[in-house]
């Protein structure tokens, strides 16, 4: 599809109409406090993945509700001192996959943890291994409407909490330099990284690519592509619940987390992206309050965004930060 959203000059000034809910900070403070009542219990089990230049650990830690969450932790094979740390979150439907799918960041001389997304990991890639033991009221197939009847029960309350705990787990490893921690990911992973950046105050950076889960009021009415379309199809059946659903989503909108982030940021957006329309990405970027922020724009790309070009941009950007 050709350009369908606002012109680039208008995107650079665009502000979301997403209203911050009352008690946003109290909700997340209570959520994380409850999660931390469970022992993090981060375990790193060495794995022979057949790789000569990277050491791999199979990680399990306690996420939301104390539920076990899986991850891979990779470091350069010759590492003996603490390294800059990259914590990565994956796109919608994917899981942590297999270790050899995640060589970039350890190959750049960093410690790298990639978190499984609970309940996902069966749509693409090498799969996942983290169940979501929490049920929900009736929902549209997918994850976007699970527990959407209230913020307390919404699926992404658990996922974002897992993301914060993933940072804590990765920082507990002796080869991780906690003071040089960066969070990143694409699409859903970008949305999770924005949320974590808004909840963890001492990060060295955040690099969300074509992030999902931002500016829900606009996204849900602008695109008919999944996953956002799951919300519209849910409301097509459950007539009259739009206000309640948008209230729940407001507690998980990347725009509000971006306004609380205190780390430098490198975003990316694609102007033909029908999954995460560029205005929704700019909504989060423009809400980001740290002065050290920049956004790479890919004029003629859809949701693949910058792909390997953006990876190169992140490698260059991280040289001065982690």
From TrEMBL:
MF annotations from Gene Ontology: carboxylic ester hydrolase activity
Active site: 187, 273, 303
Pfam families in the cross-refs: AXE1 (PF05448)
Alphabetical list of InterPro entries matching this protein: AB_hydrolase_fold (IPR029058), AXE1_dom (IPR008391), CE7 (IPR039069)
Matching SUPFAM superfamilies: alpha/beta-Hydrolases
An annotated GO BP: polysaccharide metabolic process
Binding of substrate, residues: 92
Domain Acetyl xylan esterase: 1-319
PANTHER family cross-referenced by the UniProt entry: CEPHALOSPORIN-C DEACETYLASE
Protein name as catalogued: Acetylxylan esterase
Organism in which the protein naturally occurs: Streptomyces roseirectus
């Amino acid at each position: 599809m050709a350009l369908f959203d606002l012109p680039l000059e208008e995107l650079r000034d665009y502000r979301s109409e997403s209203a911050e809910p009352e008690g946003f900070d109290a909700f997340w403070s209570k959520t994380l406090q409850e999660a931390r009542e469970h022992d993090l219990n981060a375990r790193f089990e060495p794995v022979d993945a057949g790789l000569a230049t990277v050491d791999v650990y199979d990680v399990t830690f306690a996420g939301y509700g104390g539920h076990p969450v899986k991850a891979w932790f990779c470091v350069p094979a010759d590492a003996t001192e603490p390294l800059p740390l990259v914590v990565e979150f994956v796109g919608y439907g994917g899981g942590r996959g297999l270790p050899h799918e995640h060589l970039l960041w350890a190959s750049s001389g960093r410690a790298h943890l990639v978190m499984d997304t609970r309940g996902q990991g069966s749509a693409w890639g090498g799969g996942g291994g983290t169940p979501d033991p929490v049920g929900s009221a009736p929902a549209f197939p997918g994850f976007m409407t699970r527990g959407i009847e209230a913020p307390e029960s919404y699926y992404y309350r658990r996922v974002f909490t897992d993301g914060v705990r993933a940072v804590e787990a990765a920082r507990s490893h002796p080869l991780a330099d906690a003071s040089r921690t960066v969070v990143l990911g694409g699409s859903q992973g970008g949305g999770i990284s924005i949320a974590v950046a808004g909840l963890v105050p001492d990060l060295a950076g955040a690099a969300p690519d074509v992030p999902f889960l931002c500016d829900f009021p606009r996204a849900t009415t602008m695109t008919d592509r999944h996953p956002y379309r799951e919300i519209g199809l849910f409301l097509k059946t459950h007539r009259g619940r739009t206000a309640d659903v948008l209230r729940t989503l407001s507690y998980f909108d990347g725009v509000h987390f971006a306004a609380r982030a205190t780390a430098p940021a490198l975003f990316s957006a694609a102007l033909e992206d029908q999954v995460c329309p560029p205005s929704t990405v700019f909504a989060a970027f423009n809400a980001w309050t740290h002065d050290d922020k920049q956004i790479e724009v890919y004029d003629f790309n859809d949701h693949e965004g910058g792909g390997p070009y953006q990876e190169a941009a992140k490698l260059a950007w991280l040289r001065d930060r982690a």
